[in-house]
Structure formats: structure tokens, C-alpha cells
Design goal:
With about 260 residues, the chain is α+β, with helices and mostly antiparallel strands. Helices cover about 20% and strands about 30% of the residues. The longest helix has 18 residues. Pfam families: DUF3298.
């Protein structure tokens, strides 16, 4: 599965834009709402006693809207288009033969998924299960940006499913990705704190080296990820399977208090 490591940032400045009558307009997070759209469908094989060849599709994504008496919904069109493009990407990766477009509709995505399942079931003597879980959420929205979290799991046969967590921070006004890594005042200090959190998560002694515990890297080789999520009171750093250690170690989603991660802005 392709990985799309886009970075996040935090900024405390307010964005302004202009109505058609030139009246100044400022986004306020109090006026923003999030609506979740869900897909939860399965193939007929899932009703069989042994469920062999069962295909399951679970997916969701948010749309951000403005409240108020005269909401300017066009303000957030770029943001919602960007969120939807992130939502569609796992379908593009999982079903490359369908040449799915970034703006493909929900019916088109569902049809492509179950079409692939039907074709592959006919090709394989051993009926395999299919699963695609793709949940996109907006856990934090400020006056400037939306923090987006995407959790994915795909399975089309094999020893185990592919899972990953992806974090994005999108500009509310443009939908473009913002980059927090370069905004950190002291990346070395953050790295040292994350290393302690990582060792605590796997019940390691702080004096023990990662490599001696079975990680792919040593303490000295540990680096900050660019897969970062900024929330109201915390900052999360996600390391997906095989980035630091074998698959059996799982995904490491390391969280620090926001006060411990100082930004230049």
C-alpha cells in the first residue's frame, strides 16, 4: 500500500477572506461543524456459515461546514475536496486496475471494490476474504486548520492485513497541507521524549537499546516521523508497521503534551 506521509503544523494566526461585497470575513472554529458519511456493506458470501470469500467494506469521511445565519459554504470547498481525495486514495491503491478518479462517487467506489472481489474470486480456486476499512476523521479543528486522521486496513489474502495510520493537517481556507516538522523549535528534545515514550510503551528499560529489544534501529538511529497529528492539548507521532520493527510489534502511535512540543508559530 502506498503511504502518503504529509506533515502537519500549528499556527495561531487567523485567516481572513472577502465576501462578494468586500466585507471582511474571519473563520471561527466555534462556527464549524463536522458531518460523518459512512459506508458499511458486505458481499453475499458473508452470510455463508463459513464466510469463505466474504468481502467487507467499511469506510467513513467527514465534511466540514460553517454554521451561522448566512453560512459561506464555498469557503470550505477546497478543504472538503482535499479530505475527500484522502478518503478515495485507499480505493485507488487497492483497485489500481479501475483507474479510479479522485472525485469518484460513493456508488462508483463501492462498485469498483465489489467488482474486484468478484473477478478475483473467479480466478482463485481457494476463495479468499476481502476487507477494506478506511476511516477518515477530523479530531481537531482550529480557526486555521483541520487535523485529519486516517486509519486504514486492507486484506486480500496473505499472512496478515496491511494497516496504517496517516495524519494530515489541512489549511481551512485552501485545503492545502501544512507542515509542522520544520516549525518545531527543538527537534532533538522532542525526539528524546518520544524515545522514552516508545520504550515505556513496550515495557523496555530506558537504558536498553532499541536494537537489542528487536527493533530495526538503535537508539542513535531513531528519528522523528513526519506523520504528525496536532490536537487541542497534544501532538501525536505515528510510526506504521515495519518502520521501526517487525509487523508483530504493531503500529506505534506516540503522544506528547502540546506543551512539550514547542512550535515557532
Amino acid at each position: 500500500m502506498k503511504k502518503y506521509y504529509l506533515f502537519s503544523l500549528i499556527s495561531f494566526a487567523l485567516y481572513s477572506c472577502t465576501h462578494s461585497n468586500q466585507e471582511e470575513f474571519t473563520l471561527d472554529s466555534k462556527d464549524l461543524t463536522s458531518t460523518i458519511h459512512r459506508i458499511n456493506e458486505q458481499s453475499e458470501e458473508c452470510n455463508l456459515p463459513n464466510q469463505r470469500g466474504c468481502a467487507q467494506l467499511e469506510a467513513s469521511y467527514p465534511t466540514i461546514a460553517l454554521g451561522g445565519e448566512k453560512p459561506n459554504q464555498s469557503l470550505l470547498k477546497s478543504l472538503n475536496d482535499s479530505i475527500y481525495a484522502l478518503f478515495v486514495q485507499p480505493f485507488i491503491d487497492f483497485i489500481p486496475e479501475e483507474s479510479i478518479k479522485k472525485n469518484a462517487t460513493i456508488p462508483q467506489l463501492k462498485a469498483a471494490f465489489f467488482k474486484k472481489h468478484t473477478i478475483d474470486q473467479k480466478k482463485n480456486k481457494e476463495r479468499i476474504g476481502y476487507q477494506l476499512i478506511n476511516d477518515v476523521t477530523a479530531p481537531f479543528i482550529s480557526d486555521v486548520f483541520a487535523s485529519i486522521q486516517q486509519k486504514q486496513m486492507t486484506y486480500a489474502g496473505g499472512a496478515h492485513p496491511d494497516t496504517e495510520i496517516l495524519y494530515f493537517t489541512l489549511d481551512l481556507k485552501t485545503g492545502k497541507t501544512l507542515h509542522p516538522y520544520s516549525w518545531m523549535k527543538d527537534t532533538n528534545a522532542v525526539k528524546e521524549q518520544l524515545l522514552k515514550v516508545l520504550k515505556k510503551q513496550v515495557n523496555m528499560d530506558e537504558t536498553m537499546d532499541l536494537e537489542d529489544y528487536g527493533f530495526f534501529i538503535s537508539d542513535r538511529e531513531f528519528l522523528l516521523t513526519s506523520n504528525i497529528l496536532i490536537e487541542e492539548d497534544s501532538v501525536s507521532f505515528a510510526y506504521n508497521s515495519y518502520e521501526l520493527a517487525p509487523y508483530s510489534f504493531g503500529i506505534f502511535d506516540l503522544k506528547l503534551p502540546k506543551s512539550a512540543v514547542q512550535f515557532n508559530h
